[in-house]
Amino acid sequence: MPESPASREYPPMRMWRRLAVVLSGLCLGALTSTTLSAQGVTGPAFVLGSLRADSTKTPIVGAELVLTSVGRTTRTDSTGAFAFRELPSGRHRMMVRAVGFQTITVNMDVPADGVDDVHMTLKRAVNELETVDVKASGGIRAFLLNGFEERRKLGIGRFLDSTVLGDVDPKRWASVVMEKIPGVRLINYSGRRSFASTRGAISFRERPKGDAFDLAQGAPPNCYVQVIVDGLQRYGSRPGEPLLDVNSLEGPFVAAEYYTVAETPLQFNREGNAPCGTLALWTGR
């Protein structure tokens, strides 16, 4: 019986069967392949692979992989394997994230006959917002929301709690955030949406624009805000960083807080790279 792809050992990011993978953070060239934006589009192609920790090479279980190009999501199984099937061929973008690891974004060209050896590694997160000793009653969720309440008492920033977000249709939460928080707007492009500030960046040169894939999809240069979910940075407003599609965020969200550049607390801006402000979201999970 032949070995399954997930059981074989491969070096990280090895290219197989005409797969062209470009990690975010590298210099991206012009996108000449056909880009895909319509969600729900299917085809004969597929992507199979596995995910391991960079340092130990052990499988990462339960990691979330999002094909933002077609709005598809899956998770790794107990062996770290994952699969996307019935995909259209062409240029795809995959976002890979797991608790305790750095999020990566991968651009790939998927041929009509698919790819079956996509093996990736994630590095341990080194820029966590803060390390805490949780002793509060009610567990980590109660502890995080207690921090939300403490910041709200200071009167700096704008806040939405469960009385506003608790009963919102999961498809409308982002629109409610935009409607209720002055200074925040949603930028729509090719079926995607990203949060931006109406206040402007510290300087035009620092304004984040996304990467080459975003530009090819029609994302306009804008002041895209830093986004933090449950204490983890999901988008950092860095030059050339792939934009965060808010359609890929999973709720329900029970609280939100927004800060302009000058208001952003140190715990949300340890790297000093939030030139467009910060939106922090808290889930009910």
UniProtKB/TrEMBL annotation:
Q: Which InterPro entries match?
A: CarboxyPept-like_regulatory (IPR008969)
Q: Which UniProt keywords apply?
A: Carboxypeptidase, Hydrolase, Protease
Gene Ontology terms, MF aspect: carboxypeptidase activity
Q: Does this UniProt record's set of keywords contain Hydrolase?
A: yes
Q: What is this protein called?
A: Carboxypeptidase-like regulatory domain-containing protein
- The protein's organism comes out as Gemmatimonas aurantiaca
